Amino acid sequence: RKEYLDLYVSYKFNKSVQKPFEDFMQGFLRGCPARSWKMFSPEELQVLLQGQPTFDWHLLEKNVKYTQYTKSDQTIRNFWTVFHDLPEEKKKMFLVFLSGSDRISGYGLEPFRFCIADPQIENPDESSPYASTCLLTLFLPR
Questions:
Q1: What's the number of domains the chain is made of?
Q2: Using CA atoms, how far apart are residues 29 and 51, in angstroms rounded to an integer?
Q3: Which of these is catalytic: 90, 134, 135, 139?
Q4: How many other CB atoms sit within 10 Å of the CB of residue 38?
Q5: How far, in Å, CA of 3 to CA of 88, rounded?
Q6: 10 Å Cβ neighbour count for 75?
Q7: What pLDDT band is residue 105 in, cutting at 50, 70 and 90?
Q8: Are 141 and 127 in contact (CB under 8 A)?
Q9: What is the CATH number of the domain that holds 94?
Q10: Residue 116 CB: number of other CB atoms within 10 A?
């Protein structure tokens, strides 16, 4: 029985997926040559390919540029007060709204910069915030 189970498990986990895995590996190595990736540990490679899973939100605030706003404007102070009170998942949802992804590149938040701009609309009370994901700009009405 043990031999049968060993052979069955080996078939299911090795032989039955060998051809599809070889095809996948060939395609992966064509785009990502193994020589180049060997310098990374598995954890570093995961961060490089998938981005940072955790963030220093105060560093994000520090790196923001403002257009038609200053850091001391009441709208900006209110925004950051509300933002820092959000749970982690809502903050990541904000990243999706802003950039299209809930992760930041493997370089982390240090080089990640976005802009908060005043859309300068006639009646800001009738407008909602919106974002330009290409420009990493949050348009925040006053």
A1: 2
A2: 20
A3: 134
A4: 8
A5: 49
A6: 13
A7: low
A8: yes
A9: 3.30.2410.10
A10: 23
Contacts of 41 (CB under 8 A, 6+ apart): none
Does 33 share its domain with 76? Answer: no
Q: Is residue 13 part of a domain?
A: yes
Whether 11 is covered by a domain: the verdict is yes
Structure-block tokens of residue 142:
């006053």
pLDDT, mean of residues 93-121: 80
Catalytic (active site) residue 134: yes
DSSP 3-state of 138: strand
Q: List Cα–Cα distances, 42 to 45, 48, 49, 101, 122, in angstroms.
A: 5, 10, 11, 22, 52
48 within some domain: no
Confidence of residue 45 (pLDDT cuts 50, 70, 90): confident
